[in-house]
Design brief:
The complex is a heterodimer of chains A (about 325) and B (about 160). Chain A is α+β, with helices and mostly antiparallel strands. Chain A contains 7 helices and 14 strands. Chain B is about 30% helix and about 35% strand. Chain B has an 8-stranded mixed sheet with strand order 8-7-6-5-2-3-1-9. Classes of the chains: A alpha+beta (about 325), B alpha/beta (about 160).
């Protein structure tokens, strides 16, 4: 019986998925993996590593890993990756096996820099000299420097704000946030755009997986406190009718319920009329919690995520 | 707590205050990473890296201190090349030296013992160490703050 196997490698940026006989022994598996690589990348020194053959010493730092033999492989030239992580002038380093997941490397780093788990929430590994922040399931061996078995990362916060930004209130604070990286990154990547501000209301178009824009009307009274709002019918100047709402499956479907607050507030943790009585959401979905330092980009990111899942369905209307 | 935490040469302190004031021009916040060594007893500052230098775009776009991941990585790369640690950070406020909510929520370095200095009035009034806020991070979001005489005792300005 054939099973799907994922291949990570520095040679193939986004990885590969191949089908291999689940009874195959080591050598046929290796041949199948090498055969999946572009011809010009196949060289005799390549080796195949199974991420299930992980480093016992670092197993305590596994980040939600479910390692299954033969499920995820790594192909490369390095049996060990000298991994250097830089943080504020401190340097920690370790030799990881190439199929070690970035999530484990990150947790190992946090431990060795004596940073508490709570303080490490917003810290991510970024490949030195680039803006690449590998996901936690990527392999450290995929980020070795050319011609060497070395990978260098910086431990950084995605975005840091210090200062008396909290002095800014209302429209000034919202407009300041429209100039910050979390908002701007979404805008330049075509995820959302500002439609207009008629204080205290701000309207944004958020683009779904099929390219369809949904206008979000947010009441920003009390900003940078939490806004509240839902989808808006610009043409008719009213809340979008329930049959015009996007739909989603089991994962996000509840957040798009049209019966909540009469369709005038999204059922998400960063909406001020929805969080009341749902404080447990902050533990269940911390990434969706309102952050006054990030501001409106947080709400937009949540809505964009809802509209861009595999289970997104456009309205029939 | 009133024992010395930071040791800063007088010339460096004076130049830092001048640079912070010039960077903010009395109308916006400015800041810097203070670089040096930490022997476990006291943190000795030997140079600094202005946010305006490593984060020119963010510094020009905002009236407050903001660093993207790339800008923070640029600072870490600088530290790596010169072989110095971030022993403290400093930024200015328009008014007093107390921490804002974002200051408390976002330590520049999330390691217990990190020191964050806040300079009042955009550093425009020749502040001495006694005018600064000295904020020590203890991990898990906890801070201790010192002002006035305690701040003066925490920052040793050497000849």
């Amino acid at each position: 019986m054939l099973k799907r196997t994922i291949i990570h490698s520095a040679l193939v940026k986004d990885g590969l998925v191949i089908k291999i006989d689940d009874q195959a022994s080591t050598e046929p598996v290796k041949q199948a993996v090498l055969a999946a690589l572009p011809q010009e990348l196949r060289t005799p020194d390549l080796e195949v590593f199974d991420e299930a053959e992980d480093d016992v010493e670092t197993r305590q730092f596994a980040d939600g890993e479910e390692l299954r033999r033969g499920q995820i492989l790594h192909v490369g030239r390095c049996r060990q990756v000298e991994t250097v992580i830089r943080y504020a002038g401190r340097v920690v380093q370790h030799r990881f096996v190439p199929a070690t997941r970035i999530g484990r490397v990150r947790r190992w780093t946090i431990h060795h820099l004596h940073i508490s788990a709570a303080d490490a929430n917003e810290l991510v590994l970024q490949v030195a000299g680039t803006s690449i922040q590998p996901g936690r399931d990527q392999h450290v061996g995929s980020y070795v420097e050319a011609g060497a078995c070395v990978a260098t990362f910086d431990l950084v916060r995605s975005y840091t704000i210090n200062g008396d930004v909290t002095l800014l209130q209302g429209r000034d604070a919202l407009e300041a946030h429209l100039e910050t990286a979390p908002y701007f990154v979404g805008e330049v990547n075509g995820r959302w755009r500002l439609r207009g501000i008629d204080w205290p209301f701000a309207m944004f178009d958020v683009f779904a997986r099929d390219g369809r824009p949904y206008t979000l009307r947010l009441d920003c009274e009390g900003y940078p406190g939490m806004p509240t709002g839902a989808f808006w019918d610009v043409q008719h100047g009213r809340w979008l009718r329930p049959d015009q709402w996007p739909r989603a499956g089991a994962r996000f479907g509840a957040a798009l319920r049209t019966d909540w607050q009469g369709g005038t507030a999204l059922y998400v943790p960063c909406d001020r009329r929805s969080i009341g009585g749902h404080e447990q959401w902050l533990q269940l979905h911390p990434a969706w919690a309102w952050d006054p330092a990030v501001g409106v980009a947080r709400y937009l990111e949540v809505v964009w995520t809802l509209l861009n899942g595999d289970d997104y369905v456009a309205p029939a209307a | 707590m009133s024992h010395p935490l930071l040791e800063v040469p007088a010339r460096l302190y004076e130049q830092l205050i001048r640079d912070l004031a010039a960077s903010g021009r009395g109308v916006k916040e400015s800041g810097a990473f203070l670089l040096g060594t930490d022997d476990g007893r006291i943190r000795k500052v030997s140079s600094y890296l202005l946010y305006e230098t490593i984060a020119p775009v963010s510094s020009s776009e905002h009236d407050y201190v903001a660093l993207t991941a790339q800008e923070m990585a640029a600072a870490w790369d600088h530290c790596y090349r010169v072989g110095l640690e971030v022993v403290a950070d400093v930024h200015t406020h328009p008014l007093g030296p107390a921490q804002s909510l974002s200051d408390r929520a976002h330590p520049m370095v999330s390691v217990a013992g990190h020191v964050a200095l806040i300079v009042p009035q955009f550093a425009m009034r020749g502040p001495t160490p006694a005018d600064l806020g000295v904020h020590v991070f203890h991990g898990d979001g906890r801070w201790t703050s010192m002002f006035g005489e305690q701040a003066r005792a925490a920052i040793v300005v050497t000849p």
